[in-house]
Amino acid sequence: MTASSLSSFPGRAWALLAILVLAGCSRTPAAEEPLRAVKVVTVGASTYDTEPEFSAEVRARVESRLGFRVAGKITRRQAELGQHVQAGQVLAQLDPQDYKLAAEGARAQHAAALTNRDLAAADLKRYRELREQNFISGADLERRETTYKAAQAQLEQAQAQLASQGNQANYTTLVADVPGIITAIEAEPGQVVAAGTPVVRIAQDGARDVVFAVPEDRAALVKPGSAVAVRGWAGGAELEGKVREVAASADAVTRTYTVKVTIDAVTAPALGATVYARPKALSRTGTAVLKLPTSALRQEGQGTAVWVLDKETMTVRSQPVQVATADGNEAVIGSGVSPGMLVVAAGVHVLSPGQKVSIYQEKGKGAAPGSPAQAIAPVQAPVVAPVATR
Fold it and tell me: Which residue in 4, 78, 96, 112 has its CB near the most CB atoms, within 10 A?
């Protein structure tokens, strides 16, 4: 098209062409936010029955770590893990050779001291006879008496040394001092151990304890003498026990308090068995609380919140709440909501503050405002065909 032809183009045609161009290049208007149907629950008071249960272990009331009273090299270990032993039964042995030699040396010293004492006694007897005949002075007699007393003291010292060395030789054999079960082996043959190093650990027969840990906020509620129900992890009859001891300080690592419960040794589960303990002092029944399904909760910043439905405007607003504890699939709410409020119970992640909603109704059923929540049914948004631009 030439310049002369453009100049002759009618003005009305130019205007129409401009309108068409602008219409083709304009953006498609944004679709309106769809109206979502939500299910709600009515906040109301309900009873809260709780009986905390703790994982526990059956232990012997007295568990000792036995070790040799002398140092040496272990040559034999007769005890095995899980073995039941009787008092006086040999558990392990050290190489006794050095202690036998020391005992022989002490025995020789005792023989020498005994000879010196006998010689001093004979001299003293003879000098007393000479003193009676005035052949010697009183000072000479006193010297002989002093010599005899020194020899007697040396003999007593040698006797004590011989007994001590004899005991040292006997200590090379480790025996069980009480009947019980071997629960741990802490040294093996060929190992050189110092005096007092634990070799075996033995759980004494007799009383049994159930041991578990409670958090700091509940430790003060568990008192010695209070009742505790005990049941086996693998089943069995429930046992009744009483709190025997509560730790005075928290564990350095877990910051929990150890509780020991005494149970009947005859009916007690096997040593080391896992059981569950339910302290009666921590049981709560019939407490009125506010509960919401966990699906109604969402995280908002550093806290927890729910969507509250305004029945008049049919819009939702965010309401911060404090969760006290959990009861199955429900959360016990400490604060933030009150009875009578309508709370969105599911699909809370697709809502926004001030959004208009409708109450979802199942097909063939009229859902009351306080009916249990199961899902959010969003309305299908209309499909808008895109307009091509130039």
Answer: 96
